[in-house]
Every structure is written in C-alpha cells, then in structure tokens.
Amino acid sequence: MTDAAIAPLLVSESRGSLVTTEKLPVRVILITVAVVFLVLFLLLPLAAVFVEAFRAGIGAYVAAITELDALAAIRLTLLVAAIAVPANIVFGLAASWVIAKFEFKGKSVLNTLIDLPFSVSPVISGLIYVLLFGAQGYFGPYLQSHGIQIIFALPGIVLATIFVTFPFVARELVPSMQEQGTQEEEAALSLGASGWKTFFKVTLPNIRWALLYGVVLCNARAMGEFGAVSVVSGHIRGKTNTMPLHVEILYNEYSFAAAFAVASLLALLALITLVIKIGLEWRYADQIAASRRH
Amino acid sequence: MDARVLNEVNYPATSWGPPQTVSGGDNPVDVSVENVVRTFGVTPALHGVSLEIESGELVALLGPSGSGKTTLLRILAGLDIPTAGRVLFDGEDALKLTVQQRNVGLVFQNYALFRHLTVLDNIGFGLRVRPWSRRPSRKEIRRRALELLDLVQLSGLEKRYPSQLSGGQRQRVAFARALAIEPRVLLLDEPFGALDAKVRRDLRRWLLEIHNKTGHTTVFVTHDQEEALELADRVVVMSEGRIEQIGTPDQVYDAPNSPFVFSFIGESSVLPVRVEQGKIWLDESPLDLPVGDTPNGPAKLFLRPHDVEVVDHAPGAISGVVSVLRRHAGLRRVDLEVGAERNRIEIELPADLSLNLARTVAFRPRRFRLYPVASQPPRS
Fold this sequence. Notes:
The complex is a heterodimer. In chain A, helix 4 packs parallel to helix 10 and helix 9 (about 155-165) packs antiparallel against helix 13 (about 225-235). Mean pLDDT of chain A is about 85; it is low at about 1-15. Chain A is built from 16 helices and no strands. By secondary structure, chain A is an all-alpha fold. Chain A is globular, with a radius of gyration of 25 Å. Chain B has helices at about 1-10, 70-75, 100, 120-130, 140-150, 165-180, 195-215, 225-230, 250-255, 260-265, and strands at about 30-40, 45-55, 60, 85-90, 90-95, 105, 185-190, 215-220, 235-240, 240-245, 270-275, 280, 285, 295-305, 310, 320-330, 330-340, 345-350, 360-365, 370. In chain B, the strands form four sheets. In chain B, strands 6-7-8-3-9-10 form a six-stranded mixed sheet, with helices on both faces. A five-stranded antiparallel sheet of chain B has the order 13-12-11-14-20. Chain B has ten helices and 20 strands. The radius of gyration of chain B is 25 Å and the shape is elongated. Chain B is an alpha+beta fold. The interface of A and B includes residues 183 and 206 of A.
C-alpha cells in the first residue's frame, strides 16, 4: 500500500481516539479511584497478613506452621481439595458438555441448578448435610447402625466442599463450549473417531484454557471454604480442622501470630495459583490467541 | 472415464496403504435415497425424497434456505437420522452404519478445522484415530498427509495453525483432511459459502480438477445456482422439503419443469397471460408464440431477460414502454412496462442499441416457458 493510501486511515484513527478518549482530569480521577480501591481492599489486607505473620519473628512463624495441629489442618485441606477438585472436574465437564452440545427438555432447569450453590449461603449448604446425615438427620440412624460417620468427619467435609465449589468448572466451560459449536466434533466423527477419541482429541483441547481457569478457581475456593465446612466438621483439632477453621480457632484463642502464620499459607496458595495461571497464559499465549481467533 | 486414468497417475497403487481400506477414488459408490422423510417435532423438513446418485458423479443439491438440502446431506453423512425411508450405499443399508462406519468425507462451510492442530495434523487426523490394527505408522501418516497437502497445492504450510491461513487455504485443508480417509462419498456443505467471490471462482475450478483426478462420488449443497450449474454433473433443485427437478445443468436451465425452478435458476422475467383458442393472449392481442399443451385459462409466461430479440412493432410481439435503463457489463438492462396492467419485466439488450426512456420497444422471446397459474397447488 502506498503512503497516500495509509494517510487517510491514520487521520481517521487519531480523530477516532480523540472522540473515544476522556479528558486528562477525568482519566486521572478514574485511575486514582481504581488504584486506591485496589490498594485499600486488596493489597493492604494481603500485606497485613504477611506482616502480622512475621511479627513475632521467623522462629515463631515456623513453629506455628509446623505445630502438629497445624500440619494436620494443612494435610486435611490438601486432601479435601484433592478429592473435591477432581470430582468437580468430572461433574463440570459432563454438565457443560450436556448443556452446550445437546438440546433436551429441562436444560434450563439444569442450567439454573448449577448456580444453586452460588445463591445459597454456605452455612445453609453445610446444614443441609447435617440434616441429611447427622445423628438426628434422615439417614442418621441407618448410618450409625452401620458404623458410617459422615458428619464431623472427612466425608462430610468433602461433600460440603464439593457442593460449594461445583459451579466453578461448569460455569467456565459452558460458554466456551457453546461458542465452539459442534462442527469440529461432527468432523471428527465423520473422520472415524469414536466418541471418546473425539472428546479427548477435539473437545478437550479446545476447552483446556477454560478448564484450567475453572480448576484454579475451584481449587482456591475448595481450600478456602469456611462456612459450609465449619458446620459439618465439628472443629476437632488435629482431626477435622481444615486450614480456615484452624485459623479461626487460633484467632479466637488470641494466638494472633500463629493465626496469621497459617493464614499466610492460605494467602500464599492463592498467590501461587495466580502465578501459575499467569505463567501458563504467558507461555501459551500463541495457542490461546489461536484458539480464540479461529 | 478420463478421471480414472488421471486418478491412477496421481495415486500410484503403492501410495495408498493397506488394501482393506476402501478408496473412494478407486471404488466410488453409488448412493440411493428412497422416500426419505425427516420431521423435526411437527415441522417436516423433508417430505419423501428419492434420489439416485451414480458412482463418481458430482451432484449439487440446490435450493433456498429451508429447502431441506442440508438436512438431506446430514442424513447421507449419518449426522441425522431420517424419520422414514432408506439410504443405500452400493445397495447396502447405510442407515445401519454409524457416522464412523460410513466413511464419508465431510467438508463444512466454516471449515471446522481442528484449531489446536497444525495443518499436517489436521489432515492426518482421520488416520491417527483409526483403531490400532488399521492405523498406518507415524511415518506413513506423515507421508500421506504431505502428499495430500501437495494435491491441494499448499505444500510448505504444514506447520501452520488454521488461524494462520486464509479462508480459501483453510477450505483446501478441510478437503485434504476429508480425502485422507479415502472416503466412499464426499459430502460438501456449502463449501465455498464463506469465501469471497474471487476465491470462490478459483476454488470451483480447483474442485473440478480434484474431482476429475480422484473420481469420488460427490454431493454438495449450495444455494448458489451459478455454482451448481458450473460444477455439477446433475443438479437436484429442492424447495420446501421436496425435490422440484433433477437434471443436467442444461436440462434444469433450459427446460425448468416448474415456475419455481425457472425463477430460482438463472434470471427470469414473468408476464401474466391467458391461454384461449390455442393462442397466448396478452390483454386483448394474441402473441405469435406456440402454446404447446398448456390448458386454457390464466398462465404465466417465463422468459430469460437475455434470450430476447427486438422486432419492429410486428404483430404478435410483446411491446412495452421503457421505464428504467441500466448499463450492465456489455449489455443494457431495460425495464419495460407491458400491457394495460403495466406489468414490469426486465430484458437485456445490446448496449449499442439506442434507447430512450418512455419509448416503446417490441420484442420476442427466443425461448420461453408457459405455466398454467393453477399448476402450483397450495402446499401445507
């Protein structure tokens, strides 16, 4: 293209930016509001967690997180996440596949049901399980007579966590799958791929970024969940205490340094997941862009 | 057939793998559709469609949107199941076969390439997903994919991703991917619909070449009559879930069997007339045109705008007053107001003919079709 041909484009572009750009004072005000808000509500509390955690020195910090009950809480939290997250990946994949790729009666009901955990208070989510499986609950006597304990034990905590975190994966996947339509799958089938091969070689690669975001969010929530788990766990130290519950107990006992030390671990987990997410986005930027653009 | 000879030249027998796989090029099937009905809920999409496609034939399903042509193609592919009727591939009941077993090559309007795979991996996909016992070696798959890439004239682009290709290139990759499985039938759903006019023209020529080389039985869906006439051995004109006419491009263009086909294929002008006493009447004057076996009563006279000759006010010609003049390439398009009702019809005349607005022009159609008005029964 010649310069003469480009010139009108440049003019119209700069004029366009004049039209769409706000005046300097407005920009400064808007940016200031956003930055102040971020610092006040996000960065400051995060920094406070770490400052408080190390207030009594590194020795106290290490002691607080290597204490037996703290280690048990960390182990339990990781275990619960290790069960709840894969369970929700399977559920999220199945539900979003069904919702995005098929037409059937009751689809909107299913779609709404997936959001239920978002609209119900976590405390109530926990209570539901107590009502079902607790000693006085519907299945309580049956479970007791067979020696199965769900409430105040690992199964209850896992159930409550799964309930609270199950929308995360599905909610990320449904729009991504809907946007992609079904033609690539149809092409794969016509080329002789079985249903499973089509899923693993075509559907899954296309949604991997959405899936990853879903897993990251789901994991963060699974580790940090307090309300629902608090109701079903029974707060037995060293046994049914997850990290958030342990933080609360320590705080209530005025062991502030220890409480913040454990809290800092949780915050660290959150930061690590964020770093992983950013790292992956950076590493696979080409592929992400390619799969979006197509 | 020339195509077969070419085919052997381009695909030496050694290059096409294990003999248990059916190669469309070496063994194209004939396809038979018998009374296929498809209803979606209560809405009928196909009302009992029957069609015979010979092996190696290139057939166009032509119709406006909603005519059922895509539904028919999806039924052939196995992506949709007819409510009633039969589909046979070489006499074998194709409805008993799954999509995978049918071994058809599908090409979509929007390419449907696997966006996370390179061009080469896209083409080799159909071979890579084969069960272990029938899967060629990695090296073999790569070799065949490169060969197909060469066939579609995209050598050198094997490492690109679909998003890095132009529309025309993507569609060529989609063709290569479909050809890789040595399909028994090639099914193309508006293959050039998403491309711009120039690329579309080039790809049409290219498709004909590929078809002549490989000799696959090919069915393609299009709403573009020009494309259908240019490419197909036979054109199947569809409307509202029914087949209106099946014929060679010459047959459907020169002898359309219904007003719908006449007006859908090519350009047409229509004039309401009356048939009485063995003559065609325009208002109160008879036209000097043969009636044929059209029954008495109101009728419609269809003519091609370019297929007319101007005459000097001879009796029996159609005359009208020029209302609009438009230059169109080497010709001039003329809108005439004809008869007492001032029906507007369009004809094309040589550009060098001097014409003025409001002048009266008389012409005679070289060819025309007469359809009784009642010939199109109301449809549910």
